[in-house]
Write a structure and sequence with these properties.
With 305 residues, the protein is of the alpha/beta class. Helices cover 35% and strands 21% of the residues. Strands 4-3-2-5-6-9 form a six-stranded mixed β-sheet, with helices on both faces. Helix 2 packs antiparallel against helix 3.
Length: 305
């Protein structure tokens, strides 16, 4: 049928044209929007003792899941900042030096693992004090115009024999942040981590009872840490908005247009997707036409003597 062939030809030609135009990503100017790049150094201080994988976050997930989720949410709320990750168990370590690369931040957070419980000898909740103090002092000396924000993530459980030494960081070095607490008063069980490649699923036992050990949050300890750092304490549960943790950070405090970049950006309204809908419609038409032609051909064969 020559007429139908010509129609098919034009439909396919139209599909090719639509695809070509869609590939150019056509758009029209939309409304003006404000974008903000924070002139901040953001330090994430994370407890990586065994208790951070206690299974009492949300529907029984490890606490570290909540920590990871909240770090990502904070980074999203403070775009353009420089981020650093400091972990502590028996020692405090810089896992990620200051960077604006959120991909590197995500990778650092996703690979956080608790210490092996077999080598743990107890940890102080203030183990990161000296390391954090040094980082803040260095940042103040090198880039005093940048704000310094600290977020402490933990459950407040002191496993070292001695009482925790206080955080003695000059509060003038910290321009905001929060102490974020995880865990419940009922406590959660902890998987027996031994190494990155350990696949056992048994739980840490309480040597006194032989039963599964449970880690319990200590909100009083976390509030004390917050008081020492000049930060508010926020207990975190699955599904909580990140606003209470970052709400006290005033970006305007850090001043000039050189320090807080506010730009008027023209939002783009993309127009390529209606073109792709047109291509999909043509494709559906051709499939339907092909099926119809196939059915008609079979019927003609069946009616032949």
């Amino acid at each position: 049928m020559p007429g139908e062939s010509r129609a098919t030809h034009w439909r396919l030609t139209g599909a090719v044209v639509l695809l070509g135009v869609a590939a150019l990503r056509p758009a029209v100017a939309g409304e003006q929007v404000d974008t903000t790049a924070a002139n901040l150094n953001v330090y994430f201080v994370v407890d990586t003792t065994s208790s951070i994988i206690a299974e009492d976050y949300g529907d029984g997930r490890p606490r570290i899941d909540g920590v990871s989720s909240d770090i990502s949410a904070i980074a999203e709320a403070l775009p353009g900042a420089r981020y650093s990750v400091v972990t502590f168990d028996q020692d405090a370590r810089v896992r990620l030096p200051l960077t604006t690369d959120t991909t590197a931040l995500d990778a650092a957070v996703e690979t956080l693992l608790p210490e092996s419980y077999e080598v743990s000898r107890g940890t102080s909740v203030s183990e990161a004090n000296d390391r954090l103090k040094t980082l803040l002092q260095q940042a103040d000396a090198r880039t005093p115009e940048r704000g310094r924000v600290v977020f402490y993530f933990g459950d407040g459980e002191q496993t070292a024999q001695d009482p925790p030494a206080p955080f003695d960081i000059d509060k003038r070095l910290i321009n905001g942040g929060a102490v974020l607490g995880y865990g419940t008063t009922e406590g959660g069980r902890m998987k027996a981590t031994r190494s990155r490649f350990d696949t056992t699923r048994d739980y840490i036992k309480d040597p006194a009872t032989g039963e599964d050990a449970r880690s319990v949050v200590s909100e009083d300890t976390l509030r004390t840490i917050g008081d020492q750092l000049g930060l508010s304490f926020v207990h975190r549960e699955a599904g909580d908005a990140i606003g209470p943790a970052v709400g006290g950070i005033d970006l305007e405090r850090f001043g000039t247009s050189e320090q807080i970049e506010k730009q008027k950006v023209i939002a783009r309204r993309e127009l390529y997707w209606p073109l792709l809908l047109g291509v999909a419609g043509i494709a559906a038409w051709e499939v339907g036409a092909g099926i119809t032609a196939l059915v008609q051909t079979r019927r003609r064969k069946e009616t032949r003597p």
